[in-house]
Amino acid sequence: MLDVKKVYHLMGEQTIPIFLSAIQFQPWVHHYLLATKKTEYSANYVVKALQDRQISAEVRLIGAENAAVSFSEFFDVLTASPYGMRMGVIPVYIAYEMRTCLDRTVICMKNKEIRLTGEAFNNISADPASYTFCIEEGTSERNDYVSTVINRFGTDDVMSYANRCSKAVSLMQTWFRGLPKFARTHMFEYGSEKTETGKKLFRFRRKLLMYDLNPHEFLFEYIPEVFGCFDYSELAVRVSEFADSEEAFIPDFRKYMISAVRKCFGGNIGGSLFTLMKDWYERLSDAAKKNIFDADTNAVLRFIASNTVYDDDYVISSLAKAVTMLAIEDWSDETADIFIGDIKRIISAAENYDAAGSDGNISLSIDIGGTKYEKNLADAEISAIAETALNNIEDILEDYGDAITAQERISVLLRILREEIDRM
User: 50: which residues sit within 8 A by CB, 6+ positions away?
Assistant: First the structure.
């Protein structure tokens, strides 16, 4: 029985009327319609006419099994005597004959594999010599391998792909593009130790981001080479393991960073990162806790002092965001190295603050609205830009003159100071 949906899927709903109009005056189709007393020209009747016409076995598509055949050969035979098909009807016939072997049919344009679509058939009609196709015989192991890929990265019930190999590759690429940025681009693996990703595996990840891949070449030549495995059963396992590894990359990386940051804070095997950082903070002098450091150091000290969540995944993610202004998912290998360097610098700055002594420092203690602010900062020279900002503030206050009182001037400056301290 003819599956009309498959024909419409291959040809495209909008192109069916074009083909019908091209063949409706074919004598043998007209004869068939009269003989069966059909007065409508529908896809069902046209394809049934093709089927009943008994096209010679020499031009049946099965002749292309396991060997690439140019479409021009079929067009030459089918347009000549005794068939005399018009160009428009040939794609209908080809689509109909392909219905039972869509998952094994490979169409190429100048050796580049393309998807089976209505547009593809239109292009084939315009230039059949540039297109070839073959029907792969396949093996049960090979088919199981393709099914494993499809089921690992999606489902096997999607109707948008006639060829299952194209579907498998498309699902794999869609899955990979949906991973976090760092998982797609990392050049190192982060387990108990940091190790460099193999060049083949790194190129494989980059390949998955490319467009216009050749599905059969990718599945049956490129992937086996990447994993060094040509047994399809084992290869299916390797591909699934690769997917599991990529999906676990961010969680595994967090574990690696938790261990690395623990070492920075002098941690041993036991204890959580939360308690380790809290203990470290408590050991700092009050002067260090009140000091105004650079933005990164202030952010880390503020986070450690205020955090009440024990979960180490949350701690490392929040710490990473505070220092780098990026979520771990958006990092790179270089960001990871910079982050560890920054943590070591921050720890050193806080621990060594007392050794610097109090000479040349300003101690600030203010109670505003019941909230007590105590900070230390270095009485150092300010930059040229900061000097300009100071002059602007002084000019603005001077411009107001007696319009605001001295107390109001001080109140304005204290509010600015409080907002700056709150942001530290």
Answer: 89, 92, 93, 96
